[in-house]
């Protein structure tokens, strides 16, 4: 989601736009396929999803459909406002800092330097737009290496807005295992692989295809 805006942010921060698009698209399809295979083979979560919020059945006709769409948009707006308020409450309670404390050692294992760690954690918890904006500022100031920029943006492409996105899709009937735990696992494993691969390709290849 948000592909045009978020890939543009990645480009401004220093990643090639085509690299950002390919990584996110391939990652999304690969993750969805892996979840499908896992749930299908394990016969887990095969029952119909139980949605927290479901719209009422729509009567035949264009006018009822239009009214239903307006009601749905209003309800979605209310849900988003509630989620954002809840997010601010969690932030005030210090939940964001706890998440950052847990994830910081993992980022180090993935090869993300300390200069980009805090910014990456902001993006993971609060969103790619916010974390990416900070990363753009730091990258333009020369405070973050190009390798850290690429690795950080790759991770944020797979895993950002951890609290907000998780709460939103849970309302739509998703299961926590897929939208949080497997998402984190996939993001960390693939980003670690990309970080290792980056050390094996030539600087010329990096400059041409991966990093601006």
Count the strands? 0
From the alpha carbons, calculate the radius of gyration and give it in angstroms: 19 Å
Question: Please, what is the average pLDDT?
Answer: 82
- Principal-axis shape: globular
Major β-sheet, in short? none
What is the rounded distance between the termini? 23 Å
Q: Helix/strand/pairing class, anyone?
A: mainly alpha
- Write down the domain tally: 1
List low-confidence stretches.
Answer: none
The portion of residues forming beta strands comes to: under 5%
Helix content: over 70%
The helix count comes to 10
What is the chain-wise order of helices and strands? HHHHHHHHHH
Give the gist of this structure.
The chain is mainly α. Helices cover 77% and strands 0% of the residues.
Structure overview:
- The protein has 212 residues and is mostly helical.
- The protein is built from 10 helices and no strands.
- The protein has helices spanning 3-13, 17-42, 62-93, 95-109, 114-126, 128-140, 146-158, 162-171, 176-198, 203-210.
- The mean pLDDT is 82.
Which features would summarize this protein structure in a list?
mainly alpha; single chain; 77% helix
Annotate the secondary structure layout.
Blueprint: H1 3-13, H2 17-42, H3 62-93, H4 95-109, H5 114-126, H6 128-140, H7 146-158, H8 162-171, H9 176-198, H10 203-210
Helix pairs in contact: 1-2, 1-6, 2-7, 3-8, 4-5, 5-6, 5-7, 6-7, 7-9
